[in-house]
């Protein structure tokens, strides 16, 4: 099959965007339908890619290669492996449901969907790029539309949040860019020709000092986006301020760009650097998990709860990355997917409630399940996924991460800490999560009926699309984990082989 | 006769300039708008000729060099002049006087830049510089009724004269130390006899003179005032073309005549680059006038370009050339949007841009994406340009300079976004109408925008052109 399917996935939103440019502004429904069709094309093709991806064979598939700037060895080359296939699918699901979650949008609709589609083009681009130049280019494409989306359509200190987010992400990516350029120059010298191809760059032997230095740059660059504590300050503000669809994309997908970058570029190119810094990541991520969960517990605004819970849940991903073995890395990727779907579901539901009730203050609600049973059911399922209930996607992911980190034998800080202790601490995060999730569910949706909210309508019509699609995904991959794990594992295996081949070196502590 | 063929571009430009001057005298006042069209068409035609001569090499009269390096810059100057001319149609008509002279001066300034880029000898270099500077003095002061414009003209005359004097002093010292004014022979003399104090002093003075032209800190003081006061299209032209011309001549002198003093002058350039990047970006933050903001941003851009000089390599020169070319479209794009807004609302205050996206999606989009290109955000061309510059500097081991440069360009995002914030997040004032943009300006803006996107997404053609010209410069 020579059809450039990955390029088509990325370009479908661009085509939609160009069509929307031509549609007059008052034709709001046509604009929304165009956006839905464009993202549906991406989704359908992503499903095709997911199904056709041969995980038995593994490696990069659906390749496409076009010479771009020969002088510097830049090629437009795309391809997906077991790590990126789930990410592409995740992006497609989140953006498709995100369009429906924005169906009630009435303010400057045309511009909104133009920027939204621009944003998602960048995200797709990152996940399919095999060329570091394009990887970075797409990475940055996603940032500026985000600024405008939050700044124009957001709520709660939107301009402050938008600027804070943009500056954090750009300064972070500046570090990544330095790392990328340094890598390119180092590799070009070793190889004797210029190339930005990630696979080729990975074959170069970088000396230890260089690996340590560049991995650190990458850790800052991509870590901001994850977000790793203490670089997370932009994230809850950004979540809360963003309009529904952008919150979904932002927490659901954009944070994964950071973790993906760490795995794809950081660990894959610099396994020894990764080994060196892993203990630091491991310790910081526990702060993410526990501190994020504790802060989430005391929030009064529904969106802030989910914002901090994302900080906490992304900590699990980092723990998976830091443990650097097959199980944990599998778990990290699975968690990226599961958290993306779950958090998109949360934001879609909160957006739905907020749109109708014009408040997100938990204390003002209570017994909402009487008025909005479907929303309540969706929220409950999301909540159960969040605290890692078996049968839902997140359980698989977290289980793998904890197995991986628990079995890793390496002392940190001269034996005071070990990965085993850290896993136990991380698991305690689940207990805190259970507390706040159940409390939020109880205080918001259950209890006696409040007549104040009798005018609220339950989700219906197109509003059900995000709820149904996202819940179905959580359950599908929760009940049939092998659908996902086999694919992911085919991408993780070569990575782990590289890590094991790398010199055993002590960590930073 | 072969010699004159090499000079085709310069001769055509001179003819065009004089022709426009004559036209301005002959054509009745009511029909003068046509002069602008003639100027634009002429510049476009000459640009095609210049591009077709991109491979030509030769030396005329011993010291006037035609090579791909110079021709590349000539194409750049012509592109900038063309955009300026198109941008000026309505603006000049509003000013209401001397249209013929305006376009003639524009073309003559372009000619001065060409001489500057081709000069292989110090006296013709100085001639080109003065031709450019003096015409710019007149153009900056062109709005007779505006005190700020007069101030801009006077400032540019006084400070320009001073910097010319300094430059001239430096050139004399270099001549004194080497005994020749031909750049190539100076290089040989320096290689043979080494660096004496006169030569070092001359180098410093020459550097200061050029730094003034390219608005490098601490020789940048004139630019915000002049930029603010000059007619907006001229400000655009000044910021892109005269800066590029300054860099062309600077590269010619420092790489051609003084490569053996590299160890010495590179230190000065590093200091200047750091100061320029930091000061330009930080001072831009509090600006409230779009032209002053762009002036400081343009100072900071000179800092990035200096990185290419510091790297002292083919890649660095190629990067400077690539960046200078796309900078024409990026900066002119921003100035064209500012002109369009000024033509309509008569204001340069950023606050007044509030809600511009609702009043004219095109002007707002051109402004936004031009600024993003200046900031180096993908997929705009500015990103590729900066990437090349940072690659050049990192390949020389100056990682800290690259980190500083990239961090500073992230700072620049902050103030560029302030403009975006006004345009997109603000709401238009009560009773404001849509912004009307003249068709010619509209076309020029769209063309610039498309070029910025194209060069960002597919940078290959310009990359090859710039890098090949840079290689030709290093290995003639």
Automatic annotation (TrEMBL), chain A:
GO CC annotation terms, alphabetical: endomembrane system; membrane
Example GO biological process: ATP synthesis coupled electron transport
Superkingdom assignment: Bacteria
Locations listed in the record: Endomembrane system; Membrane
Pfam families: Proton_antipo_M
NCBIfam families, A to Z: NDH_I_M (TIGR01972)
Protein name: NAD(P)H-quinone oxidoreductase chain 4 1
Species, as recorded: Neomoorella humiferrea
From TrEMBL, chain B:
Keyword Repeat found: no
HAMAP family: NDH1_NuoN_1
Superkingdom, taxonomy of origin: Bacteria
GO process terms (BP): ATP synthesis coupled electron transport
Gene name linked to the record: nuoN
Alphabetized UniProt keyword annotations: Cell membrane, Membrane, NAD, Oxidoreductase, Quinone, Translocase, Transmembrane, Transmembrane helix, Transport
Source organism per UniProt: Neomoorella humiferrea
GO annotations of cellular component type: endomembrane system; plasma membrane
Residues that span the membrane, as ranges: 6-27, 34-52, 72-90, 102-119, 125-144, 156-178, 198-222, 234-258, 264-284, 304-325, 362-385, 397-417, 437-458
Enzyme Commission number: 7.1.1.-
Protein name as it appears in the record: NADH-quinone oxidoreductase subunit N
Similarity remark: Belongs to the complex I subunit 2 family.
Keyword Transport among UniProt keywords: yes
Gene Ontology terms for molecular function: NADH dehydrogenase (quinone) (non-electrogenic) activity; NADH dehydrogenase (ubiquinone) activity; quinone binding
